[in-house]
Amino acid sequence: MNQPDLFQEKAEGWDADDRHRALSSAVGNAILQHVSFDERMHVMDFGAGTGLISAAIAPLAGKVTALDTSEAMLEKLVAKPELRGRVEAVFQDITDKPLGIKFDRIVSAMAMHHVQDTHRLIRAFAEHLKPGAVIALADLDKEDGTFHPEGTPGVFHHGFDRHGFRAILEEHGFWGVRFITAHSIPREGKEYPVFLCVATKEPNRASFRIAHTPTPRFW
């Protein structure tokens, strides 16, 4: 992966930012309220960053695989003693190189707007899930482009329209799609709602074949 690390400078102070902690707490609580976990489950945390969502899930799941394309953020995650032995960090872009693993749950918080091709991402999620598995995906509702400063690298979407996002999920074999407003981020006199979308992979839908790929980098 030869792309620049867009979070190289942000990683150091990420967890110290009250806004990040409030957002992760709200999303984590919403996930736990609307999705079940148990010790038999293998969970993917997509765009895991420093592990704030993984930390909420790990005590309830058998294993959490934390994926990110920022080495700097993953370095912060693996340095947390409370996550050692519970969370495995993986530096990989699954839209380009699948892991070859099937998961029981996929969770994600504020990562999808950093992925240019949403269809490709949702297809990758479907490919990595067992039939009947559940996704819980949080991101910004559609906004006017003012949440991020103009020209911010790596921002491809100004949030997501719920109806359009539902259609993408259903196209790729998800059903029972529902949305919850998990949080609202105040910024310069405006409020930016954050949704949590929960859906189930169709149990009888033929799974996509995951091709053999090079071994991902595990931490």
UniProtKB/TrEMBL annotation:
InterPro entries xrefs: SAM-dependent_MTases_sf (IPR029063)
Keywords associated with the record: Methyltransferase, Transferase
Pfam families: Methyltransf_23
Biological-process GO terms, alphabetical: methylation
Keyword Heme carried by entry: no
UniProt keyword Transferase present: yes
Gene3D superfamilies: Vaccinia Virus protein VP39
Highest taxon of the lineage: Bacteria
GO MF term list: methyltransferase activity
Protein name as it appears in the record: Methyltransferase domain-containing protein
Organism this protein belongs to: Candidatus Kentrum sp. FW
Top-level taxonomy: Bacteria, Pseudomonadati, Pseudomonadota, Gammaproteobacteria, Candidatus Kentrum
